């Protein structure tokens, strides 16, 4: 078990760019996730929390640099994000899946160009110094399918429509990437949905669907093993999707060599 839990939690419900639709639950998502972690530790969490206007690209990078500088080999580092995701159809063929994927910081789209986003390779570079020192759990409650406009009536998809993404990027060229990215070692990623899907906020709910079910499993305390907890979360999300008539399948990507335990002894 880890000796300490160190967390960077980001929740963005409102964006500076008026063209980006608000997400009513994301700030509460991050707070709910933190609240669910606290009983798992016998000491206060070491945390950096970024809500709304605090969650600029620079501040996000700074918070992850703090995490890299502070964590030790006996700790567990956690990065949680709830907000808009985005993707760009890469016509050049540089991306193996045909898409460049992004997270959307608070000021996303105020200036034109791909630097307005946090690109997947940028995030990987910011996370690498952390996982080189300690096990890293990444939880992303966002989506990158590019089809937010197709969300069923009454539901909110946590991504930017392709047309808005293309407008923000403009004529900027994307970096050339010619190889499949390997799964990062010493890191486990819990994603709210697969790349081709949407991550939803259901009508009237206090939290996004994936975060709500994950927090329920954390609170239940039936297992300290993250993979076991994810499997229960996965089933709960699918059950909720069946009732709502939607499709959202959480995804686990595991680069760990052993079980990842959340509870601090």
UniProtKB/TrEMBL annotation:
Species annotation: Herpetosiphon geysericola
Top-level taxonomic group: Bacteria
Pfam families, A to Z: Peptidase_C14
Domain Peptidase C14 caspase: 7-254
Name this protein carries in UniProt: Peptidase C14 caspase domain-containing protein
Cellular component annotations (GO), alphabetically ordered: cytoplasm
PANTHER family per record: METACASPASE-1, METACASPASE-4
Swiss-Prot/TrEMBL GO biological process terms: proteolysis
GO molecular function, one term: cysteine-type endopeptidase activity
SUPFAM superfamilies linked: Caspase-like
Stored InterPro entries: Caspase-like_dom_sf (IPR029030), Metacaspase (IPR050452), Pept_C14_caspase (IPR011600)
């Amino acid at each position: 078990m880890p000796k300490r839990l160190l967390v960077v939690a980001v929740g963005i419900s409102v964006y500076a760019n008026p063209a980006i639709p608000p997400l009513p639950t994301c700030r509460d998502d991050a707070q709910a996730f933190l609240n669910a972690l606290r009983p798992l530790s016998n000491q206060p969490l070491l945390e950096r929390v970024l809500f709304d206007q605090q969650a600029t690209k620079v501040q996000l990078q700074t918070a992850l640099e703090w995490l890299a500088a502070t964590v030790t080999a006996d700790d567990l580092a956690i990065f949680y994000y709830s907000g808009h995701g985005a993707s760009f159809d890469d016509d050049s063929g540089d991306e193996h899946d045909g898409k460049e994927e992004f997270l959307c910081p608070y000021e996303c789209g105020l200036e034109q160009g791909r630097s307005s986003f946090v690109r997947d390779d940028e995030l990987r570079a910011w996370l690498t110094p952390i996982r080189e020192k300690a096990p890293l759990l990444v939880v992303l409650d966002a989506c990158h399918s590019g089809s937010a406009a197709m969300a069923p009536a009454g539901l909110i998809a946590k991504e930017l429509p392709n047309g808005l993404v293309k407008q923000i990027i403009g004529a900027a060229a994307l970096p050339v990437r010619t190889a499949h990215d390997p799964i990062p070692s010493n890191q486990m990623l819990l994603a709210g949905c697969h790349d081709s899907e949407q991550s939803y906020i259901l009508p009237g709910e206090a939290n996004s669907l994936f975060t709500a079910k994950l927090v329920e499993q954390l609170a239940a305390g039936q297992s300290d093993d993250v993979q076991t907890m994810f499997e229960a979360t996965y089933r709960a999300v699918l059950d909720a999707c069946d009732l709502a008539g939607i499709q959202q399948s959480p995804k686990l990507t595991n680069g760990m060599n052993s079980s990842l335990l959340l509870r601090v002894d």
